[in-house]
């Protein structure tokens, strides 16, 4: 099994995706606090779709 070193662009994407997800999460928290909702779990899924297209999904479950 060959271990591949991540390229600069994939590291840059990863940092950008995490920063964006954190920003979205902070906005969601602010809205939820204003409306009296609370979040139970938050997950960030990072991966590859069809080889080269990258994506991230933020899953939020309400309590």
Chain-averaged pLDDT: 64
What is the distance, rounded to the nearest whole angstrom, between the alpha carbons of the first and last residues? 42 Å
Number of DSSP strands? 2
Strand adjacency order, main sheet:
1-2
Radius of gyration, CA atoms, in whole angstroms = 15 Å
Order of helices and strands: HEE
Helical content band:
40-55%
Strand content: 25-35%
- C-alpha geometry: elongated
Summed up, the helix count is: 1
How would you concisely characterize the structure shown here?
Helices cover 44% and strands 33% of the residues. It is α+β, with helices and mostly antiparallel strands. It has one domain (8-62).
Give the arrangement of secondary structure elements.
Layout: H1 8-35, E1 39-49, E2 53-62
Antiparallel strand pairs: 1-2
Describe it for me?
Helices cover 44% and strands 33% of the residues. With 63 residues, it is of the alpha+beta class. It has one domain (8-62). A hairpin with a 3-residue loop joins strand 1 (39-49) and strand 2. The model has no long low-confidence stretch (mean pLDDT 64).
Identify the notable features of this structure and list them briefly.
alpha+beta, elongated, 63 residues
């Amino acid at each position: 099994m060959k271990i591949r070193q991540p390229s600069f662009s994939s590291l840059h994407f990863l940092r950008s995706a995490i920063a964006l997800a954190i920003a979205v999460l902070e906005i969601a928290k602010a809205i939820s606090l204003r409306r009296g909702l609370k979040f139970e779990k938050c997950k960030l899924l990072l991966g590859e779709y069809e080889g080269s297209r990258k994506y991230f999904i933020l899953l939020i479950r309400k309590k």
